[in-house]
Write a structure and sequence with these properties.
two-stranded antiparallel ribbon, Nucleotidyltransferase, domain 5, 2 domains
Length: 262
Amino acid sequence: MSGIISLERPIVFFDIESTGLSTQHDRIVEIAFIKLFPDYTEHRCSYRINPVIPISEEATSVHGITNKDVENEPQFSDLVQEFISILQDADLAGFNALKFDIPMLTEEFARCGVDFDLSKKHLVDVQLIFHKMEERTLSAAYRFYCNKELENAHSAAADTEATYEVFLHQVKRYDELKTDVRGISEFTGLTKRADLEGRIVFDTHGHEIFNFGKHKGKRVEDVFAAEPSYYNWMMNGDFASYTKKVITDIKMRMLKNKFQSS
């Protein structure tokens, strides 16, 4: 492991199993972590979680976790401080993490009143590296890079372990990938997004712009200044909590700048 990738701080690989596919409305039932430290030591842990809401039959058919399996497990709020201690000083990595695992995790933190700030973390989505280079699924990636068959697919621990191994093989295989987390995150394009879903992105000057709807391509600050109701519409709409956090931070920055200039 030593020398494959340079780390300025820990990076946490993680995977989530849930009650369903909605990152805003479903809940976590299982989560696993591999925390890789700059000295290349590793810490592994996994948790079953009582989601409080029913697990859909479709979800159970994928990961095999039933309502009975988790009825006596702790809730996310019972474990939130433990999760913060694992994640707060680390960058984040996962497979399809940007579209699912990270938004799901931030929603759970938001329900607990925790402001889980991603702005200073580097995010690595191993799937995006894979999609740029090879096939399309974690099982295929595991077979391609590691020459292994993925057993117990869709259990959080097995998927996390496979994601971690695939990532290490990717870093060794591709000269295009830098060996620092910032460079890898930039390679996958994640640094261009201001929020997780890519609804708000950065332009070439580092300004936040809308990447959807009638104001696509326009600076967020310009839109909010000319049409204040658009901010309220988004805050009351079916947008992820982290997207709402991003636009609120922009709104507060605008108010601060207005106050300082007056």
